[in-house]
Amino acid sequence: MAKRILIVDDEPDICEILRFNLEMEGYDVLTAEGAEEGQKIVNKKPIDLILLDVMMTHKSGFEWARELKASPHTAEIPIIFCTAKTMEEDLLQGFALGSDDYICKPFRISEVKARVKAVLRRTLPEPIEEVETHQEEDVIRYEGIVLYLDRKECFVDDEEVPFTKLEFELLALLLSKPGQVFSREKILQTVWPSDAIVLDRTVDVNITRIRKKIGRYGECLRTKFGYGYMFSR
Fold it and tell me: Model-level pTM greater than 0.70?
């Protein structure tokens, strides 16, 4: 079945150019000229990826992305921001909101195709590499944190917590070997695919998001300055 992509941009010409080229690649493509229209589509149809403009009237792409990631029904939809905002703080804000990639305008169609293909490939369900499970097959436990590797679900004190694919794999990596320090380079090599374009602070941003999501266990995610990160009491 063709992957369904939703393009949300308040410039109709950009929507049509992207739609035409992505349909030529075999994708099922829908377009919306704003966040409100995009939300109506998301409510009605399953979406595999959203290409989202940032600077839109009424509601910005950042605002809508924050709402999408806050809802358990849409939190797992991958987002690629397509925007003319190119400052590093804008890119970091996009990643902090849970985006999977960030394309700066003006962009080449070939670049968009490559980024879309890469994000869809790495967000497909697949086994987590370099993770050793404990206590039960396909389950990692650490006190009140339980990761079900086969179902890609995380529970904290018996409550399910939504994670992006990268967040889940990063937490699984650290939980698999409590007390071991993982360098940023090792984390990027293990969790992020080789074709991903990431900033130096991308790991830090994801660690911050995970700390918030695991609540009282957030302090267990320790920073070893000059070395990396570890999970330990």
Answer: no
